[in-house]
Design goal:
The chain is mostly beta strands. It has one domain. It is 0% helix and 51% strand. It has strands at residues 6-12, 19-25, 31-36, 43-50, 57-63. The N and C termini lie far apart (24 Å).
Length: 69
């Protein structure tokens, strides 16, 4: 993990709709992963999109575990 590349994004859980800050490590490049909601503990599917040109975080998509991102 590269601490200079950490980016906190305000998001809402797709299950309970509670807001929380999601910390994303952009040094990993674009990827998909899972994170549990800090409130309801439901599994959230994440798609992290990082620019291949400058390595900047472009987008963070969240979805339920039964959705296709």
């Amino acid at each position: 993990m590269n601490e200079e590349r950490l980016d906190a994004r305000p998001v809402h859980c797709p299950y309970c709709n509670m807001p929380f800050d999601l910390v994303v490590d952009a040094s990993q490049g674009s990827h998909e992963t899972w994170e549990d909601c800090p409130y309801c503990c439901a599994p959230i599917q994440l798609r992290i999109v990082v620019s291949p040109f400058d390595g900047e975080l472009e987008d963070v998509l969240l979805g339920r575990d039964d959705e296709v991102l």
